[in-house]
Amino acid sequence: MKPLLLVQNDPVETFGVAVRSIEAAGAQVRVLDATDPAAPRPVLDDLSGVIMFGGTMNVDEIDEHPFLKENRDLTRETIARGVPYLGICLGAQMLARALDAHVRRAELKEVGFEPLRPLPAAGGDPLLSVWSDGDMVFQWHQDTMELPKGAEALATGDRIPVQAYRVGELAWATQFHFEIDASELEIWLDDASQFMDLKEVWGKSSSEIRTEAAAHMAGHEAKGSAMFARFAEIAAGHAG
Length: 240
Hints:
The chain is an alpha/beta fold. The chain has one domain: Rossmann fold (3-Layer(aba) Sandwich), CATH 3.40.50.880. Helices cover 34% and strands 24% of the residues. It has a nine-stranded mixed beta sheet with strand order 2-1-3-4-9-8-7-5-6, sandwiched between helices. The longest helix is centred in the C-terminal third of the chain and has 34 residues, at 206-239. The protein is globular, with a radius of gyration of 16 Å. The termini are close together.
């Protein structure tokens, strides 16, 4: 089977549960450090699918981060060629932007664990059906997006409406970070705390987020792992 491409858009990205979940499902991974100008550009013919991970930048900050333009082109080509795609946070916004939907600042910032509200379409969806109403998912974003033309909404939230959607039969996007695990959360919290007062900037302190994680992370990791395993199986079927 051709490998799945994991696109890294931030130096502190460790992919959480992704790699071990995908490999446990029998697939291989290839990592693209998109921030490295010397990294060879991916060839879709060599891949079974693309997973676009998050980042701290806005999807339209192309002048400051030229690799975002390359990622947008990759996303657009992935969709056009019917290669399975999965976008997480920035990756979800990348999918929207590649399909000419608007990405903007949200009315409020979200960080920590928030309840997910799957919509009826999620019940039969190959990926999002792992989630139930009220499941707590991890958020860390200040941007949101409009649904691309023809997209089907799969989940909403109590505060930010667009939480998951699907384009066609092989492209998914989630605003929430279903990939994160306990060790990656610690890296993110330690990194962010060097530059800001989290409580002042985001409304929750590191200790408050850790308290939420103690209650919800185990279930979150299990369902996130199931999402990646399911995506790997879909990609294998497509490649086959």
